[in-house]
Amino acid sequence: MGSRDTLVAYFDSNDLDTEFDRVRDLTVLMFTLTLLSTLLRFLSRKIQDIDFYFADDWWTILSQLAAIAQYTTIILTFSAGRQFFRGESPDETNYVRLARTSGGMYYIGVSITSIMLAFFCRRVWHMVYPRYARFSIAISIVHLGLGFTGSLLIQCTCAILKQPVTSVVQCHPQLWLNWIAYIFSGITVLVYLSYSIPLIVVLARSQQNLLSKIQIGPILLVGYVAPVSSILRLCALVKPVREKDYSNNVFDIVRWSILEVSMIILSINLSTLQPLFREVVRLICGKTSEKSSEKVGYNIN
């Protein structure tokens, strides 16, 4: 049975319209949250007296553009896929092209976020634990390399629609793509947790009022959606890698991937949290500055 027949059989055994609608609704929701978060960030920049780094602004812009582009390509891909698999559009060229674009944008977007987080952690934490800073950079380089490799592999595996699922496609076995996705997901979990855990430590060491913690709390919770979704997506890839069964639930992996990109929503707020990080570092190193603490508006003991 060819891969297209396998996918069609899967769609026939499930509610295709419901699956497409769920992915579409989730994508639109994350797209809206990204735009709103971006707007709030720039508004807060205008009304608050907080230091911002020019480099961070550029990384933030790249991240949010990558997120918006990915959401758009996902919506277009599933729209074309719905028409293709329902027989409304027999030409699969448009669907395959959009699938390649969407897959490439996913790897590019997550890799950009990984690099941004690595350099941010390196600058802030090098005073406390230099080895951790170098580790962050090394992990992000590997992360970026796997993402780039994965985006290239997607370009030559989209021919899977025309060939048997278990066959060797144009340039490599399909198993390679699954292993790349498997390793990439594992490193993604590591990258996200290496950033999220220090955030909790920073918040725990700070002496802020309840209102301030309520303001920062949702940002941390949104950030933890990313590692959780990465772990779930990683588990979803175990079966196809181990059993060489590539007819796994595509929609589940796509949904977890969309949630994973919510990390970009957290990254938009990095500049707002940056003064808090700097003060905690000064505290740990015995270099706390009362003048600086007053300037950034955080009370840290």
UniProtKB/TrEMBL annotation:
<dbReference type="InterPro" id="IPR049326">
    <property type="entry name" value="Rhodopsin_dom_fungi"/>
</dbReference>
<dbReference type="GO" id="GO:0016020">
    <property type="term" value="C:membrane"/>
</dbReference>
<comment type="similarity">
    <text>Belongs to the SAT4 family.</text>
</comment>
<feature type="transmembrane region" description="Helical">
    <location>
        <begin position="216"/>
        <end position="241"/>
    </location>
</feature>
<dbReference type="Pfam" id="PF20684">
    <property type="entry name" value="Fung_rhodopsin"/>
</dbReference>
<feature type="transmembrane region" description="Helical">
    <location>
        <begin position="137"/>
        <end position="162"/>
    </location>
</feature>
<feature type="transmembrane region" description="Helical">
    <location>
        <begin position="182"/>
        <end position="204"/>
    </location>
</feature>
<keyword id="KW-0812">Transmembrane</keyword>
<dbReference type="InterPro" id="IPR052337">
    <property type="entry name" value="SAT4-like"/>
</dbReference>
<keyword id="KW-1133">Transmembrane helix</keyword>
<feature type="transmembrane region" description="Helical">
    <location>
        <begin position="253"/>
        <end position="273"/>
    </location>
</feature>
<feature type="transmembrane region" description="Helical">
    <location>
        <begin position="65"/>
        <end position="85"/>
    </location>
</feature>
<protein>
    <recommendedName>
        <fullName>Rhodopsin domain-containing protein</fullName>
    </recommendedName>
</protein>
<keyword id="KW-0472">Membrane</keyword>
<feature type="transmembrane region" description="Helical">
    <location>
        <begin position="105"/>
        <end position="125"/>
    </location>
</feature>
<feature type="transmembrane region" description="Helical">
    <location>
        <begin position="26"/>
        <end position="44"/>
    </location>
</feature>
<feature type="domain" description="Rhodopsin">
    <location>
        <begin position="40"/>
        <end position="278"/>
    </location>
</feature>
